[in-house]
């Protein structure tokens, strides 16, 4: 665990921003604007659907007002063919628009998810210290998936309904403005009702997304710690905790359902009130001879066309608000800025010597809790430098600053005379080989893990690195050798094997600066000795930083620094520090206690009788 590092905590949700739905549509349009062919096909299909739906009431009105009174039997065939042809064309254009919008939605989600993942990769380590893995997974998968519904089905429905609504209103005003005004009187009430429920529905859906993240978090934590759970027999305890989170998710979903169950019937009620008013007023006008029967039937059909968009929008609102809640959670990530950033034109490291200098460096993970204060430190090129000290002294923090996982709040760190802040992160970290006490192995083969830092490594290079790390023998003992699967986090390997494999990975990278952070802590004495012999040869002419609790691993270091509470209290070689009789000697004697010598006892002290010799 990092020295003084913060515990993982929940990311605080951002407050909903005014106009976030509009900004959501703008961002989604940015991801689809390059797909003009699909967009044009979708728009043409949507317009065609609206026009075809507009034509069916006209056929109905003509049939009632002209064909039936005139008894034109022959024309009924053409009416049937017209309706059948309209239905076929409606199906065709609906199919085209659905496929086009689904393709647009999937591609938009593909780009947004990749953008979100790339942005996550660019954030500093401190961000991941504060965030939970399950929550981030939920945002990249579930939340982005919600936006796909918006772009495909939601956006298509909104565009189609908007066009249909405008066209029908214009036509109805032209046919009978009085009837149309009666209908439109109900719409302000619908708008107010929609506005009242929309913010509540969005909050409800955001609680759903957050509860999904809680479930995902718990699932990720427990599945990755399944051995710990079984070792301590906490299956029932974890099941109860999971049930609590699942219940919260169920409650959030039920709350959203209740809101929808109230909102949608209210909209339907308002629609039926409008229909009743039109039917009563239209029937009176028909009785008075102002309208024909066909006209009132067509008008009622157009009323349905007018009300259907409103009714569908009330259902689409759920998708929009659900997408808006997901969008807010996605934007929280996209608007997060990394605390560690490159300058506009960073310097690329060349001909690296590995001379690292800390000058007056102060650093704290938390404000007011310094880990290093006014810290001066130097790694000499081609030399082995070791750091020792108690847990929490700041040893691992030094490696985090050298790799620029964090930036100090004060002071400067240079590599070969160049401030780290002026160097590109890829060239800086590309010159480093790191073996940490927290072993990270990927689910794959031994070969996959070894070449992770050097993709083009040859078989000969891979084997040489494995031999140097004393790993070749145990690797070849597996049936598939270097192509053997090691399982998630290397569960098929022992602790010592994992450590040796991570050392081999660093050796294969062939860096100029090697950082060993408790690299031999999991090895038995025989393996440790073999690796120390290999490292002595491999670290020659390279800058090396070795952090160790086990002092046996650093006795050959060129320089040893003793760290205590973020300050260097002693420095020197192994022998000189022992002679100094300070903190280093105390640590050494704790690990290698000296057996007290038995005092010499004379025969007289033993009470022997000289005459019996």
Automatic annotation (TrEMBL):
SUPFAM superfamilies with a match to the protein in the record: ABC transporter transmembrane region (SSF90123), P-loop containing nucleoside triphosphate hydrolases (SSF52540)
Membrane topology: Multi-pass membrane protein
Domain of life: Bacteria
A Pfam family it matches: ABC_membrane
Keywords: ATP-binding, Cell membrane, Membrane, Nucleotide-binding, Transmembrane, Transmembrane helix, Transport
Localization (cell): Cell membrane
Primary location recorded for the protein, binned into one broad class: membrane
Region (Disordered): 591-613
All residue ranges annotated as the ABC transmembrane type-1 domain in the record: 40-322
Gene Ontology CC entries for this record: plasma membrane
GO molecular function: ABC-type oligopeptide transporter activity; ATP binding; ATP hydrolysis activity
Start and end residues of each ABC transporter domain: 356-590
Transmembrane segments: 36-56, 76-97, 155-174, 180-198, 266-283, 289-306
InterPro entries: AAA+_ATPase, ABC1_TM_dom, ABC1_TM_sf, ABC_transporter-like_ATP-bd, ABC_transporter-like_CS, P-loop_NTPase, Type_1_exporter
PANTHER family on file: ATP-BINDING CASSETTE SUB-FAMILY B MEMBER 10, MITOCHONDRIAL, ATP-DEPENDENT PERMEASE MDL1, MITOCHONDRIAL
Family per record: Belongs to the ABC transporter superfamily.
The protein, known as: ABC transporter ATP-binding protein
UniProt source species: Paenibacillus nasutitermitis
